[in-house]
Amino acid sequence: MATLLLARGAARQREMTVRVALGAGRLRLVRQLLTESLLLAAAGCLLGMVLAGFGHDALTRVVAAGRMPGLSVHYRVQPQLDLRVLLFTVAVSLVTASCSVLRQR
After folding, report:
1. What are phi and psi of 77, to 5 degrees?
2. What global pTM score does this model have?
3. Residue 64 and residue 78: Cα distance in Å, rounded?
4. 10 Å Cβ neighbour count for 60?
5. What is the C-alpha to C-alpha distance for residues 25 and 6, in angstroms, rounded to an integer?
6. CB 94 within 8 A of CB 41
7. pLDDT tens track for 7-22
8. Distance CA 36, CA 97 (A)
9. Contact of 9 with 98, CB cutoff 8 Å
């Protein structure tokens, strides 16, 4: 995601130059880029959480049916979504989006 944000920032160099020429301050530009990046990061986090939920349901069904390929031993597994991991992933995503904006200026 950071690479996509950096590529998008490089492509918008001309737009930023025009905005500065029209009188936009540096803080205004950083605020705009930060808002856009954080919204994209939040959308990516939301999509990731939805996919994690679907993956959790699919894994639970596969394990419950006993169709784990390569497992000769049958044992009970209950996959769970860990809230700490989800929150850590959201935090890393938001920090990455923020860092990419600060790097563009």
Report:
1. -130, 135
2. 0.68
3. 9
4. 14
5. 21
6. yes
7. 777 777 888 888 889 9
8. 9
9. no
Encoded tokens for 51: 């996919």
Query: Which position has the token pair 């959790």?
Result: 56
- Neighbouring residues of 1: CB distance < 8 A, sequence distance ≥ 6: 40, 41, 44, 93, 96, 97
pLDDT band at 78; cut points 50, 70, 90: low
Q: Is the confidence at residue 71, as pLDDT, over 70?
A: no
Q: For residue range 85-98, what is the model confidence (pLDDT) as tens digits?
A: 888 988 988 888 88
- 100 and 37 Cβ atoms separated by less than 8 Å: yes
DSSP letter string, 52-104: HHHHHHHHHHHHHHT--TT--S---------HHHHHHHHHHHHHHHHHHHHHH
